[in-house]
Amino acid sequence: MKSQPVEFLESVEHDLRYARDFYESWLLNGGRDFMKKFHDCISWIEWNPEMFPKKHRQFRRAIIRKSYFGIYYIIEPDVSIVAAVLDMRRDPRIIRSILLRRQA
Question: What is the chain's alpha carbon radius of gyration, rounded to the nearest angstrom?
Fold first, then answer.
């Protein structure tokens, strides 16, 4: 698979704010560190979108290193679309429900 750009649904901004606030609430510089790991993970998705496994229908999941969060995305012909950044400790049924509402 060739590398390709990554785009984000608007709802991902809310997901990232939640994750940043979560880590900032109990770790010194936790929000900043989380965002660095998030951007590193996005770089891997850009480099090889098929690297990460399918988890629900067409959604793939990349786990953000040393965090509770995963990036859920869809591969389109010319772009990968991030649909959600979610806490993976949630009930899988809730995660599936969120992903279905955010289908591109």
Answer: 13
User: Is 1 inside any structural domain?
Assistant: no
Retrieve residue 47's tokens: 């480099």
What's the CATH number where 10 sits?
Answer: 3.30.2310.20
pLDDT digits over 20-61, tens only?
999 999 888 999 999 999 999 999 999 999 999 999 889 999
List pLDDT tens digits, range 90-101: 999 999 999 999
Give the whole-angstrom CA distance, residue 37 versus residue 41: 6
Q: Take residue 46 and report the two structure tokens written for it.
A: 């850009």
Instruction: Tell me how far the alpha carbon of residue 86 is from its chain's centroid.
Output: 7
φ, ψ (nearest 5 deg) of residue 45: -65, -40
Strand partners, 101: none
According to DSSP, the residues that pair with 87 across neighbouring strands are: 69
Domain encompassing residue 90: 6-101
Q: By the 8 A CB rule, do 89 and 19 touch?
A: no
